[in-house]
Write a structure and sequence with these properties.
The structure holds two protein chains of two kinds.
Chain A: H1 6-17, H2 28-38, H3 45-55, H4 59-68, E1 80-85, H5 88-92, H6 95-106, E2 119-124, E3 136-138, E4 141-143, H7 148-165
Parallel strand pairs in A: 1-2
Antiparallel strand pairs in A: 1-3, 3-4
Helix pairs in contact in A: 1-2, 2-3, 3-4
Chain B: E1 3-6, E2 9-12, H1 19-25, E3 49-53, E4 62-65, E5 75-78, H2 82-95, H3 113-121, E6 144-146, H4 156-164, E7 171-173, E8 180-182, H5 197-200, E9 206-208, H6 209-212, E10 222-227, E11 236-242, E12 245-251, H7 264-268, E13 283-284, E14 287-288, H8 291-302, E15 306-311, H9 317-327, E16 332-334, H10 338-353, H11 361-366, E17 369-373, H12 377-380, H13 382-401, H14 411-418, E18 424-429, E19 441-444, H15 447-461, H16 472-486, E20 492-496, H17 502-517, E21 523-527, H18 533-539, H19 544-553, E22 557-562, H20 566-569, H21 572-581, E23 584-589, H22 594-597, E24 601-604, E25 613-616, E26 621-625, H23 639-650, H24 661-671, E27 694-695, E28 726-727, E29 774-775, E30 802-807, H25 821-826, E31 832-834, H26 836-841, E32 849-853, E33 858-865, E34 873-877, E35 891-895
The chains are: A alpha+beta, B alpha/beta.
Bound molecules: iron/sulfur cluster (2 copies) and FE2/S2 (inorganic) cluster (2 copies).
């Protein structure tokens, strides 16, 4: 069975303790983030079951939540995940073209990962940055006012970062 | 009563309702999906839009969801408003963008709420020409078929399954246009209420898988109002037939009994009717004979013999009475031992006294506290357990909303306010049960200790006796419970015969009586084993022990055994002895079993589907079921018809005709006073409306002229039904029939089960003309002490002996429903439960084979260790193969 490292477990406990007795389920979202970070950027069934056991809830209650939010990856993802907003405002500002351009550049479809494991393309709903549409989320940052050049730059940047870290 | 204006006409409506309910009650056709009368409003589907106006001068108004807005005096609204109509049409249009439009191959077609609502809004042209999203369907077990593409995301399924029924294995996954309703992976839906999904889901996502094996559209079914045969609750059902086979069972609304729902045993347990094991021909000495030969033979065995009859807890009142009438009151017995009979007699005595009213399921739902003593109702009376769940949840909701103006129908808001607040419910049972998780307090104890706790509770509420030798802990618990009960106003006490323990029943009465003395309005419910156990108990036949003595004394006895397998409830040794002493054995039954094998004369009886009858539920509610269809096999007839013919043989009045139902019921009423009023359970056979009968077939019934053409190209004349006001045709009165004679729910534009709206006085309320059934325990007669007070000694383990008690199972413990493959498949393997300490003492582990020795019989089962079980008790899965004739409630020996 998979488990958190000791540190992460402490962290998990701290989160759980934020909530009153009987309301441990409230810790579900942060715990899933924790698990996603810890277990390779995505949540497999054992990971979700592990979280269920930590919170003393049924596994199905975890699946229900994990499948709802696009922030949780239920399949392995690449090192860099492009989460491109496709909701109305971004769409009006050309998110369709951006998505098509990324597909063509990376030779993958939405929901897929490049064979080298470098990039995953996801589409998501409004990220609350409509004023900077079209936009996407990359890791912990927003990339805004996207156009083809910017996409090229971002891809380059990711590749060189990866090269540096290897 | 608030007055509201709908499209400028004024109407009086009931306060506290939402606009949707009010409009539907007034008879308006307003479409909706997510709202359900039993589950309230969540405002999820946006289908029920109407326009409201500030006042009569406001001409623009605004669109609101009618299910989310309460009625207010002077409210102005419009259903016909152009914008509101356009809005509703648009909602359907978008809900339908991904819908597969596969009505021709969809099981829901013809009884589909989505079809009805689509037509109602006028959406008839698809403009969206993109790809539809599709899903992978799941295997959900033997009862429910899954076809996710048809989903319109109303969330009714999860709201019913999880919230209403407490199921855990159905859920909603993902979001926006790929939201998914199903299990986490393929597998059987575990809740015993899963079948309701087929009616709750307004589309063809969840449908009845058993119907699918022999599929028929609703409009092609010949249907009749029926009553469930699988426990003592007496849920109202509709049974449908085509081509001589029973096709399905669906809910028949009764506001006081089962409301909108059924349990899976009741819904899917019907296949015994179509079983290969049916008795199809009369037999004399195991040889099939024709009717003449049968009658001839009956004449010789019925005359010049002394007759005794054994009545049946699963046969109708008519059949039991016809038997009593044939053999005489003094010769009428029940197929159970004296001890068991005394339990049922205790119950009828208590109810007869009228001191404490019986609780209907509706009253249980509305109760503000529930105490369950010694009965695992989840398994013995499933729909009662569902009612208890509503009491717990709704009381919690009521408590939480007391100080707010929040109306009860506002589901999500009430839930938010409620959080974990629950109504008070104590579940005192022999071992853990599925209701434990919502109980305020669970106590597992031996029957005598359950009774003692009960008496202690009663005494705390209303001191009437001196409690000697009571442990402090028990007294403390009793005090907590009593204090809580004293805070409530209409508590319900539930108990039953499963403990085989009379003190438990008396304790339940004492609690109720004490509550009454304390100024409360308590009600009581006694669960009994079979669908007509209560009716049989009310007949007050003699115990089987007496019958055995009788045949041992008298050499020339002809025994007439009605619809039961004696070997199921009595030790084989005793039954063998009894049968061997009878000169002649006449058995009437529908299915072959160990008893029918011993019959000298075997007579095929109809099941509920091929005959008429009345059953008396735990509530003392007499309810009529009607023949659904005329079987091809002319030998299959109600037992009461056969028995009445036998009577005519004896009296020399045989004329080759069957008696009519009306005459049997009226003789019952005159002969046995306790059944006075039973004839009002249904209209008499002569009843008609404008000279028309009530058709069992919808006016769209197809194939009538051709379906029998393989046998005869001329269309046969429909059979006349001399027993009821229902006809076996599609012609007849098309309006609303009397509430106890509704063969199917249908109104123009309303083809789905939700047509029931049009049969109710108010939405979610009583049926027009009152709810079906007559309660027989209403007059107070008979004496009853104020309190019983006589508490038993506290339970003591015995050296090398164990108290044998049954563990019932929704699937498996009932004799008839296990003929349905799906139910048989879900029955557990037979087992015996022991406490961990006892298992250790016997040096056995989980799975070890252990033998149970009672007086004459031996049984052997694998051991299951039951943590919550008290030492000194052995628990055996009731009704499963190998458990026949066990002496429940007696002390037995165990051997490795
Ligand atoms: S499966 Fe049926 S009940 Fe459930 S959300 Fe879909 S349409 Fe509604
Ligand atoms: S609760 Fe009893 S009467 Fe009701 S459907 Fe289930 S088995 Fe039938
Ligand atoms: S629509 Fe893209 S961020 Fe809001
Ligand atoms: S029925 Fe009112 S919003 Fe669904």
């Amino acid at each position: 069975m998979i488990t958190f490292s000791e540190n992460k477990l402490k962290e998990a406990q701290r989160i759980i303790n934020r909530y009153p007795q009987g309301k441990q389920k409230s810790a579900l979202l942060p715990l899933l983030h924790l698990a996603q970070d810890e277990f390779g950027g995505w949540l497999d069934v054992p990971a979700m079951d592990y979280i269920a056991s930590l919170l003393n809830i049924e596994p199905i209650e975890v699946y229900e939540v994990a499948t709802f939010y696009s922030m949780y990856n239920l399949k392995p993802v690449g090192r860099h995940v492009f989460e491109v907003c496709q909701t109305g405002p971004c769409m009006l500002r050309g998110s369709d073209q951006i998505i098509d351009y990324i597909k063509q550049r990376l030779q993958i479809n939405v929901g897929e990962t490049t064979p080298d494991g470098m990039f995953t393309l996801k589409t998501v709903e409004c990220l609350g940055a409509c004023g900077y549409a079209p936009m996407m989320q990359l890791g912990k940052t927003f990339r805004e006012h996207l156009n083809e050049e910017k996409v090229d730059q971002i891809i380059e940047e990711c590749r060189s970062k990866a090269a540096r870290n290897n | 009563m608030p007055k509201i204006f709908i499209d400028n006409t004024s109407y009086e409506v009931k306060a506290g309702k939402n606009v949707l309910e009010a409009c539907l009650t007034l008879g308006f056709d307003l479409p909706y999906f997510c709202w359900h009368p039993a589950m309230g409003s969540v405002g999820a589907c946006r289908q029920c839009a109407v326009k409201v106006y500030k006042d009569e001068n406001d001409t623009s108004g605004k669109i609101i969801m009618s299910c989310m807005e309460g009625v207010r005096d002077g409210m102005h609204l419009s259903i016909d408003d152009k914008a509101a109509k356009a809005f509703r049409e648009q909602v359907i249009e978008w809900l339908m963008t991904n819908h597969p439009h596969d009505c021709p191959v969809c099981d829901e077609g013809g009884s589909c709420h989505l079809q009805d609502m689509t037509v109602m809004t006028g959406h008839d042209y698809r403009r969206y020409d993109y790809k539809k999203r599709t899903y992978v369907n799941q295997y959900l077990g033997p009862f429910i078929h899954h076809e996710m593409n048809r989903c319109i995301q109303c969330y009714r399924c999860v709201r019913f399954y999880k919230d209403y029924a407490g199921g855990k294995d159905l859920n909603v996954f993902a979001a926006h246009n790929h939201v998914y309703f199903g299990r986490e992976k393929d597998g059987t839906l575990e809740s015993p209420f899963s079948g309701n999904l087929a009616e709750v889901c307004p589309t063809g996502v969840f449908t009845d898988k058993t119907l699918r094996q022999h599929y028929t559209r609703k409009w092609d079914l010949t249907s009749a109002p029926s009553v469930c045969q699988h426990c003592s609750v007496g849920c109202n059902t509709i049974a449908g037939e085509r081509y001589g086979g029973l096709r399905n069972i669906v809910n028949r609304y009764n506001a006081e009994v089962n409301g909108y729902f059924l349990c899976d045993r009741g819904r899917f347990g019907y296949e015994f009717v179509n079983s290969e094991n049916r008795i199809t021909k009369p037999q004399v000495m195991h040889q099939a004979v024709d009717e003449n030969a049968l009658m001839h033979h009956l004449e010789t065995v019925l005359t010049n013999h002394s007759l005794i009859g054994i009545g049946s807890p699963r046969a109708s009142m008519e059949s039991n009475f016809a038997l009593l009438d044939l053999v005489g009151k003094e010769n009428f017995f029940c197929g159970v031992y004296n001890e068991e009979m005394m339990l049922e007699r205790r119950i009828t005595d208590i109810l007869d006294s009228g001191k404490i009213p019986v609780a209907s399921l509706k009253q249980i739902e509305d109760a503000d506290a529930v105490v369950i003593l010694g009965e695992d109702i989840w398994n013995t009376a499933p729909m009662m357990a569902l009612a208890v769940r509503q009491s717990v949840m709704k009381t919690g909701g009521r408590e939480a909303t007391e100080k707010t103006p929040m109306p009860e129908w506002h589901e999500l808001a009430v839930k938010e306010l409620q959080q974990n607040t629950k109504g008070f419910m104590v579940n005192v049972t022999v071992t853990e049960t599925s209701l434990d998780e919502i109980a305020s307090l669970n106590i597992n104890a031996a029957p005598d200790d359950i009774a003692r706790l009960g008496f202690a509770i009663a005494n705390h509420i209303h001191p009437s006796l001196e409690l000697k030798n009571f442990e402090e802990a028990v007294l403390a618990k009793a005090k907590t419970i009593a204090d809580e009960l004293l805070k409530c106003s209409n508590p319900v006490i539930i108990t039953g015969t499963s403990c085989y323990n009379d003190p438990v029943l008396r304790a339940a009465f004492d609690i109720a009586a004490a509550l009454k003395a304390a100024g409360k309005a308590p009600a009581i419910a006694f669960v009994v084993p079979e669908c007509n156990s209560m009716g049989l108990a009310m007949m007050r036949g003699h115990a089987f022990d007496t019958a055995v003595r009788r045949v041992n004394r008298e050499p020339n006895v002809t025994a007439v055994i009605l619809e039961q397998d004696l070997y199921r409830n009595l030790p084989a040794g005793i039954v063998d002895e009894f049968l061997s002493k009878c000169r002649n054995i006449i058995v009437l039954d529908s299915l072959n079993n160990a008893t029918t094998e011993k019959a000298h004369v075997l007579i095929p009886a109809s099941t509920f589907a091929e005959g008429d009858g009345t059953l008396i539920s735990y509530e003392g509610r007499a309810q009529r079921y009607y023949q659904v269809y005329v079987p091809d096999n002319k030998y299959i007839r109600e037992s009461w018809k056969w028995l009445s013919r036998m009577k005519m043989i004896i009296s020399g009045k045989a004329n080759g005709h069957d008696p009519h139902h009306d005459s049997v019921i009226s003789s019952l009423e005159t002969a046995l006073r306790q059944f006075a009023g039973i004839s009002a359970a249904a209209p008499s056979s002569g009843f008609s409306i404008h000279g028309e009968q009530i058709p069992r077939e919808p006016h769209r019934y197809s194939g009538r002229t051709a379906m029998l053409a393989n046998r005869n190209v001329s269309e046969p004349k429909p059979v006349a039904d001399g027993d009821s006001p229902l006809s076996f045709t599609m012609e007849g009165y098309q309006g609303t029939p009397p509430s106890s004679a509704i063969p199917f729910f249908w109104k123009p534009g309303w083809n789905s089960p939700q047509a029931v709206n049009k049969y109710q006085q108010e939405i979610g309320g009583d049926l027009i003309g009152g709810n079906p059934g007559v309660r027989l325990f209403v007059k107070s007669s008979g004496n009853m002490p104020e309190f019983f007070k006589d508490y038993p000694e506290h339970f003591r383990e015995r050296q090398n002996k164990w108290l044998l008690l049954p563990q019932s199972h929704v699937f498996g413990s009932d004799e008839l429903s296990v003929y349905s493959a799906g139910i048989a498949g879900r029955s557990p393997e037979p087992y015996m439960g022991l406490s961990p300490v006892d298992a250790k003492m016997l040096d056995v582990t989980e799975g070890s084979q252990v033998t149970i020795k009672s007086e004459k019989e031996e049984y052997s089962f694998p051991v299951k260790i039951v943590e919550s079980l008290r030492n000194g008790i052995v628990l055996v899965s009731k009704g499963l193969p190998g458990t026949q004739g066990m002496s429940w409630g007696n002390w037995v020996e165990l051997a490795k």
